Amino acid sequence: MRTLLSSVVVLGAALGLAAQDAKKYESKDGRYAVTFPAAPTVDSKKSGELTISTAAVEAKGVAYMVIHSDLPAETVKASKPEDILDNGEKGLVDNFKAKVTKSQPATFGPDKFPGRNVTAEVKVDATTLQLRLRIVLASNRVYQVLAVGSPDAVGGAAADKFFESFEIRK
Question: Is 115 helix (H, G, I), strand (E, B) or coil?
């Protein structure tokens, strides 16, 4: 369990993350706000033509993250929102080698952005962790809000507060 959680957090640390204020975190570039259980570290890196920005923290055995990236306008125009959400779900599930146990379409916020709520199992050695993911497509920006940890923790009050606190700013 520690291996996966450490990998998620170390990934951010290895990319030169800087600590921010604890609790409410606001990303001006990402145009979102969220309440982390502790001060997150932040990073931005290039992957092909995309810039992937991450804010992450580990608290009480749970890794909390918000990832956002801007897709090229042509990609968004040429794709259905469901296809973009499928790709976001598949990418994260493939990265974690996870088994999806639940995937539901959703809308997010007052603008009713298309989204998806996903729950998946992640095996690390003999331990089964849970990955809880919310993907939101807002114009050409994809947000991935996630928590990884024990099923009780990821389904608990602290994780609920984290997910409920996420808001997209204009």
Answer: strand
Q: Dump pLDDT digits (tens) for 16-41.
A: 333 333 479 999 999 999 999 999 99
Number of domains in the chain: 1
Provide the CATH number for the domain around residue 20. 3.40.1000.10
End-to-end alpha carbon distance in the chain: 37
3-state percent breakdown (helix, strand, coil) of the chain, nearest 5: 30, 50, 25
Residue 12: what pLDDT? 38
Tokens 């982390």 correspond to 36
Structural domain span for residue 102 = 2-168
DSSP-assigned states of every residue in 7-74: HHHHHHHHTT-EE--SSEEEETTTTEEEE-SSPPEEEEEEETTEEEEEEEEEETTEEEEEEEEEPPHH
DSSP class of 139: T
pTM to 2 decimals? 0.84
